[in-house]
Every structure is written in structure tokens, then in C-alpha cells.
Task: structure prediction
Amino acid sequence: MFKTVIRRAGKCAAVAAASLMMMSAQAAEPIKIGSFLSVTGPASFLGDPELKTLEMYVEKINEEGGVLGRQLELIHYDDVGNASSARNFASRLIRSDRVDIIVGGSTTGATMAAVPLIEQAQVPFISLAGAVVITNPVKKWVFKTPQTDRMAAERILTDMKDRGITKFGLISGTGGFGSSGRTQTLEVAEQMGMEVVADVTYSGSDTDMTAQLTNIRNTKGVEAVLNFGFGQGPAIVTRNYAQLGMELPFYQSHGVASDSFLDLAGSSAEGLRLPASPLLVPDSLPDDDPQKEVVQNYKAEYEARWNSKVSTFGAYAYDGLMLAVRAMEEAGSTDPEAVRDALENIKGYVGVTGVFNMSPEDHNGLDPESFRILEVQNGEWKLIN
Amino acid sequence: MLAEFLQYLFTGITIGATYALIALGFTLIYNASHVINFAQGEFLMIGGMATVSLTAMGVPMIVAVVLAVILAGILGIALQRFAIAPAKQADVVTLIIITIGASIFIRGIAQVVWGKEYHVMQNFSTDQPIQVFGAVLNSQSLWVLGIGAILVVGLVLFFTKTLIGKAILATSMNKEAARLVGIRTQMVLMLAFMVSALLGSVAGIVVAPITFTSYDIGIILGLKGFVAAAIGGLGSGVGAVVGGLSLGIVEAMAAGYISSDYKDAVAFSMILLVLFFMPRGLFGAKVVERV
Result:
């Protein structure tokens, strides 16, 4: 009788001790990573792979023991590509979810809508959107992982110049990406002493660009054609270009650097060049390329986990998350000010998109060379330089 | 100079023919029920997407096309039976709103089933474009024009020579009277939806090699088709064809000669002008108010 009481007491003590230990483990609260992405809607081709990447790597990091001994918790919202809901979700992430850092903003519109709030709330923010306005002028709390459209323009125009081209025709989409790309191209061309002899546009829903291309073809002095845009538009431009039998060197922007573009454009894409992430040609990178391993791993892991093709856009999220993790590790805490300072001083982080060297003047940290110039040969991407 | 003009003309006629087919679909249903069916663009999408996915599964092209058209036809009937018919006492505006809802629903399903990517369809015949006086014509354009013409002739014959066609016309003129002479008006409505779904899906299939196809292709093409129908005068078959072709040509000419920035503006100014001077559209029925 007495023995059983003791035994029971022992059991109780053991249970109490165990539950205490569990409580203390719970006391190390997870690090909250907030995100608003365009997972559905017109920009879903950006947000969908981005969310998949974040989910997958948060899981992976947690399995490996988390960051600073704490687990990561991903809190995400779908802004449906709508800037005003992006702003609302950013506000919810800051005020009610009280996240430690935000990695998100699939489009430039969504990012810029959230920036004022984030600056005011003083939370580190890594954007996954392209336009140059996000980090130029530099905003104290805002960073971004994709290269800017200006870098793409610089890279393309340098390649043209190397081929002895100084006059080219520009055809761009009227959407945010295309029109920003157009502005940057015009500026860069002027700086580099090149001439844009024809400048036409098309809207995102157009189904035939033959008229615009005829216009360019009939312009005197055109030596090459550059198309700045994304979505299905550039694929139609590419097909029309081939149908018209135009044989000038043809360039696309990084906006269509994906395998699905090759599927859409088919044999019409033969010979065109574009600046792209090394992710498209993981196996042709030279062995001494520091990015080779990171790129190959990301591609393999993503494709194994989701059973779908890896995309450049998902890689922006990968780099965003890894930069955030690295900054927190270097700061040794999740104190926003410390994390921000650490982010700003990250040097030599080798990501999928490029090698990041942040500084107080540069919250993007990439240079134009992080783009590789690829050419379509026999229906596949070929690394040119 | 001529080559340039011809190039713009070809571009305009091709896309215009597509608009015309969509506009005809609007016209059919409008005639039968005075409803503007905003799910018309979705029939187009179903045609293209079903063909693409069936061919991807290894079904021969011809069979895939037939199956896709049948699928769209069934969808048209289902739309009428399950969405429009249950609300038969409702007024026209309510029915129009129902079609908008249906279109969002269909698009959502398509997005889940087929994904959000754009898909390619091969040209029906050669990929080699045809040279005409220095302008190039995509061989698929000939298919669009040819099939469009056949459909228009077929529709005319259907309405003037067959009993069912006449029954639809009778219903559109006076539903009560049609019912009194023994026409089953519910049946006629269902037929109108089916025929217009068939039309839409065929348009979607022939144009898919040119425009690509995706779950949301129906939104903008459907809207343009509606504009074409409105320019031609809602309810007029000739009007739909003329409206579609002229919209396409004006768009292409504007893009080529003025600037592609103003392309849509020119198209929409055109509808304003037409409706301003001819409120019932180019070929709209003269309406006499009876007291």
C-alpha cells in the first residue's frame, strides 16, 4: 500500500518534471518570418514557387535545429497580386503577428505599397521584386534579392556592343515590368552611346504583335531587336518575329528566362539571347563557379520536393530566406536593429541568384555580371558568358 | 508601303475573325433570351484548353478537337440548366450577373484542373508562313478565316432553313407567342446556349495556335467579342461579323500606324462614336415603341 503511494508519487514527479522541461522548450518561442506573396492571381507564377520555396526551406532549417536554437515559423498571406491587399497584410504581419522579419512582395507594386508601413514600423524587409525603385534610393529597412531591370538592360546592351551593335529597336510591354524596363533601357542606351531607333509597345493582353514588329523592321538602321516584357507576350513576339522572317539578332529580357518560355515560343526562339539566372544552366556552369553547387542543390531539392520545374522566381525567395537567416545568426538575436545592421553588412553570400555584397549604399548587393547571357540553341539554353 | 498595309490588314482580319465568332455567340444568346452571356469567353477557353490537354494525353488532334467542342456544348447546356433556368423569373440584369458568376466559377475550375500556365497548340497545317506581296500571313490565319466563314454560313442556313433555327428566332421575337404555337421555349434557350458554346469553343480552338491559351484567355477575348457585338448592334448576326472584323482591323491599323499605346483607346473610341451616332449599333434592329 505504502509502496504504491510512493511509486505513484514518483510517477507524478517524473511527469511533472517532463512537462516542466517541455514548457521550457516551448518558452524558446519560434522566430516569426512574415511573408505576403502573390500566390494566386495574375502574378501567381511568381508567388507560387516563392511560397513553395519558403515552406520547404523553413521546414528544412527547422529539422536541422532552427536558427539561434529556435524554430522558424512562417506566417504568410496571399495578396493575389493586389497592391492594396499587400499593404493590409504587411500591416497585419507587423501589428498582430509581430513578425521578426518580412521576406516577401512578389511584385514591385506589392512591395512599394508595403514599404512606407514597414519603414515606419522598423522591421527588416527583404523584397522579392525586380524594379530598381525598391532599393534606389536606399531605404533603411528595405532590401531585395532579384537583380534590377537596370542591370538586365546593362547586361544586354553590353552584349550587343560586344557584337558591334549600336542601333537597335525596342519593343516592350506596357505593364509595370515592361515599362520600367523600357525606361531603364533608354537611359542605359544613352549612357553607353547606343541609339534606340524604334520604340514600340504592346499591352499584356495583346495576341498579335506583327504590326509592331513590322514597324521596327521598316525602320532604317536597326541592327538588333530587344523585347522587354513578361508573361505570354514575349513568346508571341518571338513567334511573330520568326514568322516575319526577321533575322536581326534578337534579345529578350530576364522576365522570360524560364523553361516554360521555351515551350511556348518553340522553334521560333532559336538564336535569341537573354540575361538569366545561372539556375537555367546549372550543369554548364564552370566547376570553379562559386554558385555552381548552390544552384545545383536548390534545383535538385526543389524538384524532388514539389515534382515541378524549378523557377528563377523561387530562387529569389531562397536567397531572401537565407539572407534573413544569415543576418539573424550574425546579429545573434532577432532584434530588428541588429538584424538590419547585419543584413546591410553581408558580404560574399553565395546565393542562387548571384553573389551578394550588401553595403549601406547598396541594399541589393548584386552586380550585372550575376546575370549570365544565354542563347537558345536547338531548343535549349546555352551559356554564352 | 503596300506590304506594310497588307501586314496590318492580315493581322487585323485574323484577330477580327475571332472577335466576330465570339460576338456571334453573344448575339445568339442575346436573341434567344436578351441575356448578355459573359461566360462566352469561357467557352472559348474550354475549347482551347481541352484540346491542348487532350492532345497532350496522346489523343489525336481531330478527336481532341471534337471532344473539346462536345465538352463545351455540354457545358453550355449545363450553364443554362443549372444557372439560368432555376432563376427564370428573375429579370435580365440578374441573369447577366449570374453569367458573370458562372464565368468566374468556370475559370476557377479550369485553373485548378489545368493550372495557371500558358499552353501552346500546334498550327493545324504548316508552321511556314505565306508570303503575299511582301507581307507574311500565318497559315493558321487562313484556318481562322475559313472556319469562321463556314460557321457563319452554317448559322445562316440553320436559322433560315431548319425548324429548330426558326423556333429559336420565333422565341427571340416573342416568347409568349412562340410558346402558344407549341415551341418549347426552355428547350430553345438550352439550344441557344449550346450552339453559342459550340461557336465559342471552335473559335478558341482555331485561334489557340496564334494566341496561346490559358485558363484566363477568355476574359479579354470575351470582352473584345462583346465590344464587337455592341458595335454591330446586339442581336444582329451581320452586325457581329462586321463589328468583329472592323474592331480587329482598326486595332491593328492603330497599333501599326499610330502607336500600340493607343490601340485599345482607338478601339474603345470607335465603340463610343458608333453608339453615339447609332445608339443601336451599326446593324441594330429599329425599335418602335408601341403604346
Observations:
- The domain at 31-147+291-367 of chain A is CATH 3.40.50.2300 (Rossmann fold).
- The first helix of chain A runs from residue 2 to 27.
- The interface with chain B takes residues 42, 44-45, 48, 174, 200-203, 205-208, 210-212, 214-215, 218, 231-232, 235-236, 243-245, 260, 263-264, 266-267 of chain A (CB under 8 Å).
